[in-house]
Input
Amino acid sequence: MDRTLPPSTELLHGTLDALILKTLASGRRHGYAIAQVIEEAALYRMERKEWIEAEWGVSELGRRAKFYRLTPRGRRQLAAQTAEWARFSAAISRVLLAT
Output
């Protein structure tokens, strides 16, 4: 049964739905594999943009793991996106709260 969602939630769900459907377009996968494909695509994209960097290390469980951290460029991008979101949400709030 579909429930009506707020537009922001609907947009997020629609985006997530599209990512999952695109992942499954190449074949059958289990849930963890779907999450891995989406995560890896996002992380690789951010690495290419030099927003994050990765290095191999050892996890808390003693396993080899890739660790990510923000770069100076990534910190600037985060600040820019946070400011953009604040401007957008403030504009929406002004419209919704107008009398």
User: Anything to note?
Assistant: The radius of gyration is 18 Å. The helical segments are 7-25, 31-48, 72-97. The chain is about 65% helix and 15% strand. The first strand starts at residue 52 and ends at 58.
